[in-house]
């Protein structure tokens, strides 16, 4: 897919907080006074404080251009997390939405012989080969978000639960409509970029969750994770459906445009669920309009990716785990933010 692939939606101020929440595993949890002598397994699970300065490592970083809130939050989370470590030299390359330029940028990091690479590819399939070249050169790759199809191309993958996002949105909508006694609801779905596997996973999770309530998606249309595309797609759907019960919009960045179209049309007979967890979406939820919830997809994953790359490059594991090495994959949970819990999540929201 040679076209530019920019993307959406979640949580900026959580550079340290988000990574710390996911990987508190990197500090010791040993009890001060064990009741009895520890077994070999208990000893292995103890671990040490992995945040102490260790071997100096250079971590390369490549991601798409920050042309919307979620990607901007990815870069900020990674940069801020790296700055926390005196033993890390952070080496980002110029962000770009051009596939060939990103390949070239990653190749410069391979030539520089960095200790580890963190890569959020514009497209996992098209950057798979250059990631494989890095691993073949002995450089561990932490694959962020959009996955490389060849598992030999990365040491560890970390990302959000796209299927889980769809499930969470589907359960919120399905449960609410079922409680209201709606028998044949009109449910609309505004996707992100339809060709991306992550979008397909979100749609599949949404359909599977709705099915448990006896519901199905009435109409589905893809946008491009941008404000402009959100406005256009929402306008089309609003004109085509004179009565709507619920909308799931995959991405809170494009959701700005979706909400603008809804306001312009003067429609409020339905409720909407967003995706990713932007700060502006959470403020809309607080205000009590058609947007009632959003399901999270946190850019704090970038901070955690840097943290994992450091551990791998230094030959460390995650000290709350029994295993000696960092896991091969880590999937973040997708959480549902509503008016009842939005105050808890708002400090972590990224700005669209």
Keywords:
six-stranded mixed β-sheet, six-stranded parallel β-sheet, alpha/beta, Rossmann fold, 12 helices, 352 residues, 2 domains, Peripla_BP_I
Concise structural overview:
The protein has 352 residues and is of the alpha/beta class. The protein has helices spanning 15-22, 40-46, 69-83, 99-111, 128-136, 162-179, 197-211, 227-240, 252-265, 279-287, 301-313, 342-345, and strands spanning 57-62, 88-92, 116-119, 141-144, 156-159, 187-191, 219-222, 246-249, 271-276, 291-296, 329-331, 336-337.
Molecular structure report:
With 352 residues, this protein is of the alpha/beta class. The chain has two domains: 15-28 and 42-160 and 299-332, Rossmann fold (3-Layer(aba) Sandwich), CATH 3.40.50; 162-296, Response regulator (Rossmann fold, 3-Layer(aba) Sandwich). The chain has twelve helices and twelve strands.
């Amino acid at each position: 897919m040679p076209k530019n692939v920019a993307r959406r939606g979640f949580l900026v101020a959580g550079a340290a907080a988000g990574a710390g929440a996911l990987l508190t595993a990197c500090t010791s949890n040993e009890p001060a006074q064990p009741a009895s002598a520890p077994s070999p397994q208990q000893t292995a699970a103890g671990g040490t404080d992995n945040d102490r300065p260790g071997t100096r490592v250079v971590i390369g970083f490549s991601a798409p251009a920050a042309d919307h809130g979620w990607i901007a939050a990815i870069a900020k989370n990674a940069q801020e997390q790296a700055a926390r470590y005196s033993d890390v030299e952070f080496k980002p390359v110029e962000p770009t939405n051009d596939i060939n330029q990103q390949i070239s940028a990653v190749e410069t990091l391979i030539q520089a012989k960095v200790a580890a690479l963190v890569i959020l590819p514009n497209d996992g399939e098209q950057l798979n080969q250059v990631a494989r070249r890095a691993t073949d050169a002995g450089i561990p790759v932490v694959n962020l978000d959009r996955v490389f199809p060849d598992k030999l191309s990365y040491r560890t993958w970390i990302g959000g639960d796209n299927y889980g996002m769809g499930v969470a949105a589907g359960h919120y909508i399905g449960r609410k409509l079922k409680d209201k006694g709606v028998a044949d609801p009109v449910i609309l779905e505004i996707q992100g970029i339809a060709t991306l596997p992550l979008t397909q996973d979100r749609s599949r999770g949404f359909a599977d969750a709705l099915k448990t309530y006896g519901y199905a998606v009435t109409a589905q249309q893809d946008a491009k994770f941008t404000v402009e595309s959100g406005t256009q797609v929402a306008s089309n759907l609003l004109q085509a459906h004179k009565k709507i019960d619920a909308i799931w919009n995959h991405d809170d960045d494009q959701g700005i445009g979706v909400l603008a179209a809804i306001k312009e049309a003067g429609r409020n007979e339905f409720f909407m669920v967003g995706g990713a967890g932007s700060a502006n979406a959470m403020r809309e939820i607080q205000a009590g309009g058609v947007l009632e919830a959003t399901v999270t997809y946190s850019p704090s994953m970038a901070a955690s990716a840097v943290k994992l790359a450091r551990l791998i490059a230094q030959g460390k594991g995650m000290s709350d785990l029994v295993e000696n090495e960092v896991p091969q994959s880590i999937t973040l949970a997708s959480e549902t933010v509503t008016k009842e819990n939005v105050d808890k999540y708002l400090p972590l929201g990224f700005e669209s």
